[in-house]
């Protein structure tokens, strides 16, 4: 693999900022290895170089991290990039061939990360038929995420729906559980503390356990007990609801391209 730095973050908002934080804490890149092009960069990017158009030619790798609706405007920098610059896109739904075309035929990798890259515990699905683009994307994401290679680009929609959007489903679950605790008589503070701490502890337990989630669930569920009573309410709708939710995110990912 050729040198992948300096890396230009084309867009440094929430996801670009999460990556900068993750790279900093993992020691993956020095700040001097990173540059930013963003009219309103987030706080994580504040100390990074913001090259003028001539300076863009220094970038060896470009991380495309703007909203999918804005990516074509962002790609207007293409004529200023070095001919051998490689594009690594995290934009949901935007196809590899479209990106390659907009960036003058440069090599492209697609990655779908999630915000937990900020603490080096993300998951990042990767699709890149070009070996050099794949190697660079792996070098960027492996230090901060579990990298999951995809065999076909079409699977990127499902990866987005499960792992990219997934953190929001979990946070929505915590919100709903805390609201239900309040309804059941707890104070707002106690309900929130319980819901948050329960998810954090249970996720940590899953991380350390060799058991799959179904077995961990069984370990909590006493026959005829409270958990079984709650799961009998929750589980029948949860399966089909989750299937519908993931299908809705897949549909939206297809539309965004
Ligand atoms: N937020 C998340 O959890 C995830 C987001 N993504 C993808 O990451 C991309 C960015 O999402 P967020 O960081 O959430 O959005 P964001 O809105 O927080 O950040 C986007 C940044 O792009 C900048 N920008 C807008 N136009 C630009 C241009 N022409 N040139 C350069 N920069 C420009 C904005 O100022 C902003 O700072 C999206 O394509 C999204 O699909 C992927 C995985 C997870
Ligand atoms: O909501 C979105 O469209 C982006 C993609 C995955 C997470 N956030």
TrEMBL record:
Subcellular location field: Cytoplasm
Keyword Ribonucleoprotein: no
InterPro entries membership: 6-PGluconate_DH-like_C_sf, NAD(P)-bd_dom_sf, P5C_Rdtase_cat_N, P5CR_dimer, Pyrroline-COOH_reductase
Enzyme Commission number(s) from the entry: 1.5.1.2
Domain Pyrroline-5-carboxylate reductase dimerisation: 153-256
GO MF annotation list: pyrroline-5-carboxylate reductase activity
Pathway: Amino-acid biosynthesis; L-proline biosynthesis; L-proline from L-glutamate 5-semialdehyde: step 1/1
Tagged with keyword NADP: yes
Main location as per UniProt: cytoplasm
Pyrroline-5-carboxylate reductase catalytic N-terminal domain location: 7-93
Keyword annotations from UniProtKB, A to Z: Amino-acid biosynthesis, Cytoplasm, NADP, Oxidoreductase, Proline biosynthesis
Catalytic activity, reaction form: L-proline + NAD(+) = (S)-1-pyrroline-5-carboxylate + NADH + 2 H(+); L-proline + NADP(+) = (S)-1-pyrroline-5-carboxylate + NADPH + 2 H(+)
Annotated family: Belongs to the pyrroline-5-carboxylate reductase family.
PANTHER family named among the record's database cross-references: PYRROLINE-5-CARBOXYLATE REDUCTASE (PTHR11645), PYRROLINE-5-CARBOXYLATE REDUCTASE 3 (PTHR11645:SF0)
Protein name: Pyrroline-5-carboxylate reductase
